[in-house]
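Worked problem 6 (solution included).
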Amino acid sequence: MANTFYASPPHLQIQHLCQHQHHKYLTSLPRRRPLHNLCFLPTQNRLFAFPQPRRSYFTLNALHSDPPHQRSVNSGRRNESYQQWDTLTSKLSGVANFPFLLLQMPQILLNARNLMSANNTALFAIPWLGMLTSLLGNLSLLSYFAKKREKEAMLVQTLGVLSTYVVVVQLALAQSMPFPYFLATSLVVLSGLFLNFMNYFALLNAPIWRFWEDFITIGGLSMLPQIMWSTFVPYLPNSILPGAVSFVIAVFAVTMARSGKLSEKGVKFVGGISGWTATFLFMWMPVSQMWTNFLNPENMKGLSAFSMLLAMLGNGLMLPRALFIRDFMWFTGSTWATIFYGYGNLACLFLLNIIGKEFYLAATVGLVSWIGMAFWRDSVVHGHSSPLASLGDLVFGSRK
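Solution. The predicted structure is:
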């Protein structure tokens, strides 16, 4: 090697010597971590690289959900049809505000008339605990959609919070809801709306948001078993044991996750509790209604077919968006409410001859056509040969 080096022409000897010295300089430097072991943080127009610590730290996200998979399915496909369907499904979610608004208005107006006529006892038929459960569910889902930046779905949940809170105010005025509970509920509602929108616009301190996440996680997990148990009273003994036990479990799970004593999968599981408990609370509403229908079929005459149609329309309008962004939790809750709460109660009304055959058949054809269209269109924009492939992406892709 040495003889070959010095036998080279003078200009090549100088070049080789520089290369040799440069190689010695590089080999004398301390070894750096490989590039793939760096995490990159985009800040404004620059890219900063920071070495990852050896130990992995996991943060608790009380509203964690599997990320949308519309980016991973045919990610290179960004044609005009895809963008149009993306925009349309987002607008359909926004349109869902109108059926939900019309769904609440009759109850609000009826309560107002009863209050003005001093018929306060009529409002005692509305369970304030059920309203409180609905409020917590709406707030949890509002936080969930705020983190996913689903603006239209946020508006739907915000409308749900506000309309339900109006009913709560009416119950407090009628003194059917204890005033201390009303004050606590008002504080939670106002704080929840403020914190969610502050977080949406990235104006909220991280520790405050983590506290809110813990609160709705513990609250949702505590109330869900209690509501499920209370549905079947008096066939089950009247007890607060389910809520108390689930409260202890929720506090323990959140504490373990915050202290870093759970595995990554455990932290992810705890993080998903809030959104799923809110979804299950809404999914339990049709179960409770069906159980009431079974026990007292004569009371079905007081159930508004128009309200059930609005519930079916409102939830059905959000189905295409949930399918498009591959949000399994959102799709599950919306599908359940569309089929079992809206359409299921219409089926009960038809079987009891409360609504006509034409009304029921029109609702059936409309629902089947809408769901079929949503799956067909989604499969087209994602380049699938069958609508079942979109369902496979939703169900199995969400677990990847």
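Discussion: The chain has 15 helices and two strands.
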